[in-house]
Design a protein that fits this description.
mainly alpha; about 300 residues
């Protein structure tokens, strides 16, 4: 493309170089916004899962988030939606639903301030491993973050006594982390031009599955009545977070933005400590700190 007649030669190249960094910075802001929304959505969803079945909570949050998705589809332009965008979106949606149900089950059974950082550290490290596999260079500070994640997970899971994280809960937390990582990576394969339609495909794939599971398990009713409010709030926050992270990974590097999105345990833990008055032991506190340091280092 030739430079504009009313500008100096080379002005187009300069403006393009300025646009690219701004888009990357915008994507990182969106990723952090998604972390805030994910964190509070998980906290509220975890509370709901203590009152009713986790699969029921996961299923109904998928439905409650649809109005936010429809609003997003109206606001965000989509200039070219390819079949591959919808396939990646649908695949990510199914895996994400499974991860959501596993996470709610773990949050309901264990301390939120312990379970959430395990999931977050895993969801931060796995996209980095993916980046290595596809040939991206990992900086030394990111390797340091991975080391902190390993130490943090060991401290959290090896706590002796009644408050320790059982092998089952540890496995659930890791499974949820893998599922969320796959969701981030799948959405990163979609094009910016497709807008939020991959997320629509994700939700349209996950809602029927969630409905079928709920019907088969005969747990469609949300009891007590207060669970409805929690699920509705969690669903809307979760969809807002999904909108933000999809826009982020479409516009910037998947690895960095997925890691920034994984900062959500900071907000889940903060809510658990200040609202539920949870008091982790000293060893678990060290593990939580190491996991959160890992997420921060991986985001740099």
């Amino acid at each position: 493309m030739a430079p504009s007649r009313c500008g100096a030669p080379g002005s187009f190249a300069v403006s393009a170089s300025l646009v690219r960094p701004s888009l990357a910075a915008m994507s990182q802001v969106l990723a952090v916004v998604s972390a805030v929304l994910f964190g509070f959505a998980d906290f509220v969803g975890g509370l709901a899962s203590r009152r009713t079945a986790p699969w029921t909570v996961a299923g109904w949050t998928q439905v409650c988030g649809l109005p936010v998705l429809f609003l997003g589809l109206l606001i965000v332009d989509a200039t070219a939606v390819e079949a591959s965008d919808l396939v990646w979106g649908a695949a990510g949606g199914v895996i994400g639903l499974i991860g959501l149900a596993i996470m709610y089950s773990a949050l309901a059974a264990g301390k939120m301030s312990v379970i959430a950082p395990i999931i977050g550290a895993g969801a931060a490290a796995i996209p980095v491993a993916y980046a290595v596999a596809v040939g991206e260079r990992i900086e030394p500070i990111h390797w340091a973050g991975i080391a902190f994640a390993v130490v943090g997970v060991w401290l959290l899971s090896a706590e002796p006594g009644a408050d320790r994280v059982s092998l089952r809960l540890f496995g659930q937390a890791i499974a949820a982390a893998v599922a969320f990582s796959v969701f981030f990576i799948a959405m990163g394969q979609t094009s910016e031009a497709s807008g939020l339609w991959p997320l629509a495909a994700a939700r349209f794939a996950s809602v029927p599955i969630a409905a079928a599971v709920i019907v088969v398990s005969k747990t469609a009713a949300l009891t007590p009545k207060g669970a409805w409010r929690l699920v509705a709030v969690s669903g809307m926050l979760d969809m807002g977070a999904n909108v933000a992270i999809v826009l982020a990974v479409q516009r910037g590097p998947v690895g960095i933005n997925a890691v920034l999105g994984s900062l959500y345990p900071v907000f889940t833990v903060a809510a658990a400590i200040f609202i539920l008055r949870e008091h982790p032991s000293s060893r678990q506190t060290a593990g939580i700190a190491a996991a959160l340091v890992a997420i921060v280092l991986l985001a740099l």
